[in-house]
Design a protein that fits this description.
This protein is mainly α. Helix content is 67%, strand content 8%.
């Protein structure tokens, strides 16, 4: 699934993931304090993210449909697909160019490769 969120929507999502389950009234208070939003703005952003299938608001209780980890995994996969034609080696080459990996990073990557081979 393709997820596209603006920066403010991402910040809002981070709040929900951190606080969930969170009452919608409490979410309004948090967003007023953090962003200076009115109640209607909070509910508009929440509605949009619910429509995208990221959160749900049932009986005034807001919870995630997909976890933060699942969300960022999906957006990372989208990025690699769109930018590098789905090639993970091309992404890794671009990501590490001009940057020296530490021995620990190399070991962690090698562990992942070994796990995928099994």
């Amino acid at each position: 699934m393709k997820y596209e969120l603006g920066e403010v929507q991402k910040q809002f999502a981070e709040i929900v993931w951190e606080k969930e389950p969170v009452g919608s009234g409490e979410l309004v208070k948090i967003c007023d304090k953090k962003f200076g939003w009115k109640k209607s703005t909070t509910y508009t952003v929440l509605k949009k993210l619910c429509e995208k299938g990221i959160f749900q608001n049932i009986g005034g209780m807001v919870t995630s449909i997909i976890s933060k980890t699942e969300f960022y995994a999906a957006t990372s996969e989208q990025f690699v697909e769109e930018t590098f034609g789905g090639s993970l080696p091309a992404f890794i080459a671009a990501f590490t160019s001009g940057k020296k990996l530490t021995e620990q990073e190399v070991e962690e990557i090698q562990k992942m490769i070994d796990e995928f081979k099994k």
